[in-house]
Amino acid sequence: MIYKICRLYGNTEEDRQDLFQEIIIQLWKAYPKFRGESKFGTWLYRIGLNVAITQYRKHKNKIYASDIDSLKIELPEDSFISEEEEKLQAMYNAISRLNDIEKAMVMLYLEDKSYDEMEEILGISSGTLRVKMNRTKEKLRQITKTN
Amino acid sequence: MELDDLKQDWNKSTTPHKTPPYNLDDLMVTKSTGAIETLKSKYKKQMVLLPLAATFLGVFTVQNPVLQHNAFIWFIIPLMLLLSLIYYRSYRLVAKMEQTSVESIKKSIQENIELLHRNTKQQLYFTRFILIMFILILEATMYYQHPAAFVAWSSLGLPIRLAAYALALFLQPFITRYFFELNFGRYIRNLKSLLDQAT
To answer: Which end of chain B is more exposed for a tag (fewer CB within 10 A), N or C?
Structure first.
């Protein structure tokens, strides 16, 4: 779950490792204050996404023209990449072109979170989220079409 | 390609989501290189080093009869302590911003913007206070000790000195804002753009 956040918000493997570390540290610090008022997963997403979006700004302004490592897919033993994996990789590339809040929305959507849970994590009303989600889906459709 | 079509694949697929073999023990021990931690350690270092240096200088001066009457040293020590207070305030600000990560994303962004704006105002008053203290210490030092180090300044005459102090007090808000903008400006703009994205 944490690594999925890192994959979306980190440009390089080094970035992802730094972000992973940052999230782990923040979770470690915040855990004593966890009162169980929300689900553990919701709490974890909140901290992870908050760190990725609002606190972790290192390298954010750098442009990585071709980061081969980040595009690499580990090959299974029979050297066969399934069609699904290929599609998923293409979708990852498309998602990387969204803004930070849209990325978070898409990720939570793919994680099968309900709009109520998404509201709890993002702080955006479920009505607004539905509208934004439709717009983001359309945006992704356009991005993948042009690629 | 539709996002909904990939929902199943996203949850089924393990390869792109697989966490590399990070060593959690190492990550917890290794110093964080994130923006917040970097800022915190920078402020912490200044916050600790300045009073230590002031104490060292104070003790050294007290023990040295020649330096005991050097007004410049007694002028520098309180300034160092006041500067360390500025770093302490910045450290507290960053620590408070870090604590907002348990809130929802939008609330955290709003709280961070609010914290930074409140801090800008407080910083303006605080630096004004430091500047006034600086002027008072400087004038008192010159009045009571007539130190050689300040001869050129005291020979200028009170009206010119007062005009210079007035100019410094006039420029201080602009300078404070400039440095705040330098440190946090880009971050505030980024937070505002994030808030726009969330509304």
So the answer is: C
pLDDT tens for each residue of A62-105: 433 334 344 444 444 444 556 767 777 777 788 888 888 898 99
Indicate the average pLDDT of chain A. 77
Token readout for B185 is 């400006």
Q: Which two tokens stand for residue B110?
A: 């709003």
The answer on pLDDT for A58 being more than 90 is no
B97 with A106: Cβ contact below 8 A? no
Count contacts between A and B (CB, < 8 Å). Answer: 165
pTM for the model stands at: 0.73
Say how many domains are in chain B: 1
Find the domain containing B137 and state its range. Answer: 19-198
| CB interface of A with B, residues 42-81, below 8 Å | 43, 46-47, 49-51, 53-58, 73-74, 76
Residue A32's pLDDT is 86
- Nearest residue, CB atoms, B1 vs list A22, A50, A90: A90
Residues 6 or more apart whose Cβ sits within 8 Å of residue A40: A34
3-class SS string, chain B: CCHHHHHHHHHHCCCCCCCCCCCHHHHHHCCCCCHHHHHHHHHHHHHHHHHHHHHHHHHHHHHCCCHHHCHHHHHHHHHHHHHHHHHHHHHHHHHHHHHHHHCCHHHHHHHHHHHHHHHHHHHHHHHHHHHHHHHHHHHHHHHHHCCHHHHHHHCCCHHHHHHHHHHHHHHHHHHHHHHHHHHHHHHHHHHHHHHHHHC
For the record, the structure tokens of B77 come out as 């020590």
Taking only the tens place, the pLDDT of each residue in A14-53 is 888 888 888 888 888 888 888 877 888 888 998 999 988 8
User: Domains in chain A and their CATH numbers?
Assistant: 1-64 (1.10.1740.10), 79-147 (1.10.10.10)
CA distance B17 to B176: 46
